[in-house]
Specification:
Elements: H1 2-25, H2 27-50, H3 78-84, E1 87-88, H4 93-96, H5 108-120, H6 126-133, E2 137-138, H7 147-160, H8 163-172, H9 180-192, H10 196-201, H11 213-225, H12 229-241, H13 247-256, H14 270-278, H15 294-302, H16 312-316, H17 320-335, H18 341-348, H19 355-359, H20 361-364, H21 372-383, H22 387-403, H23 407-418, H24 428-437, H25 455-458, H26 463-477, H27 485-496, H28 518-525, H29 529-539, H30 549-563, H31 566-576
Antiparallel strand pairs: 1-2
Helix pairs in contact: 5-7, 5-29, 6-31, 9-15, 11-12, 13-14, 17-18, 21-22, 22-23, 27-30, 28-29, 29-30, 30-31
Length: 580
Amino acid sequence: MLLSKLNKYLYFFFVIIFFSHNVYAEPKDIWDKSKKIQKIEKNNKKLDKDKRNPSDLPETVFSKDKKINLKTSSINQAEISVEDELIFGLYEPDQSGIDLNFWSNLKQKDLSKSLNKILLEEKQLINLKKQIFFSKINLNSFEDEGKVYLSFITKWLIKNKQMQLIDNVIYQNSIIKKDKELLEFLFNYYLSNYQLDKACSYTKLMTSDLDSKKLDKYKIFCHLRNKEFQIALSKLELGIENKRFDSFFIKKVNEITGIEKTNQKNFNNILNAHMTVISSKQDNVDYINFSKNSELRNYYFKSKLYKNFLNDKFLENIEDNKLNDIIIFLERSTNDDLIDIENLTALYKKVTFTVDDLINPKTASKKYQRPVSHALLFQALILSQDDFIKYEILKALKNKLYLNGLNKIADKIYLKEILKINSDIVSKEDKTLIKNANKTQNNIDDFLHKSNVINLIKNKKDKNAYKNLKIFSKKIKQKKYVLNQKDLALINLLHKNKIKLPDNFKKNIYKEELYIPNNIFNLIDNNKKNLALLKTIEFTNKLQSKEDYLKNFLIILKIFDELKMPTLKKIFAENELSIT
């Protein structure tokens, strides 16, 4: 009996050992067997399911009597959008009529060519371009996943200095936070405006994966500003090991932290200039060091450094050999709206000329270079007592300043001095300039296209707007108001919106046939709306032509009608007519 029991125990013992060995030695075989079992069970269930009567099938299965909703809206798109879409932008598609994949099927070379042309344009129709290029789009719909498009966005934002827009874009689009060019611009922009806290706020976005020596410098500088010297020195040491910093930057960081003393100065860029200023006595910082570019000039005036130099005492005791350099510096600064024009014209008067030069200023100015020629024409202008001569000199001075890129100075001097000349001898264009200058600039009702008449497009029953329309009609009859090109555009816009116009306005309705340019028309006809829209933006440059302004304005409205983009049409009209 005992042997019999012992044999049973030994038998079970060997069985257990055998199976445990297989379990640990070959785990894959067990999973394979499990899969095979599941597959067999699944097939068996399928066979059982096929044997059922049709009446036993669940309602989710197709049948003739059931209507199934197969519309896209019935699908939960949130699950697939992660893989298929990378969204960039601010405005929802229903706000602009530009859907998420609007730019798809557009060849990269065509897109790049058009965007580059738009970058070269003057700052105009900003609101329209904002609505178009910041409507939400799917970057994955581009051939290059949006690299060319995002590069354009960065360059456009920097060129137009849309600072609030930049912050909105960064806040809502994490992808653009990694743009080195944009981050470098933001830091420099706010540092040049002496907004140091704002400049440093962007260093939080400068992560370690952004390989930029400039951004590394900015981060160290902001640590210094926050008195975080140990962190700054630690990052400086790491940068020195990797040969990322120049000797000037290293010495200035060491000087600011008290490690060494150096009198080195550098004004090659805005950061070097600022580090030079904060580590030097302001009396040793000369204005001429900030004359190289607008960024440095901007810093010079926004930081109030100019108060130590360009004061009345300094201006009264300028040496003759330095006068030209100072005038050129002030010309550039005045043209950037950094200093009042009176400071510049006061220096124009300090330049010495012969009597012959002042008698024949237009001829004499040809032998002088800038800024002496400007000073000569200005002196002759204010000395002249004859309106005919004064008017000729004024036009010559304006042309000379325009030629040297000083448009804002030219316009300011021209507007001030034209008011002193008898209006009977000036051109028709200057007569209009004088009339407009005499109006109250803060009253938008001085101009038809800026008045509340525009509200008639939104509300045909606006009594105040219609009353104002009649007032302008009466002024025109009495020859107290002359319609300009934008007024004519508004009148035609009112007519297109079936607004009842006064009788004397009806003669201003454009009656000729309007033709969309062939290249845009063909694109629309071939359903290439994306490229047609880009070409339309290019076509808006035609609005700068005064002769065909009204015609081109109406053609653009017609294009938007053909594109079936009423929102963009509305934004274009409001943007162009400066409607608030």
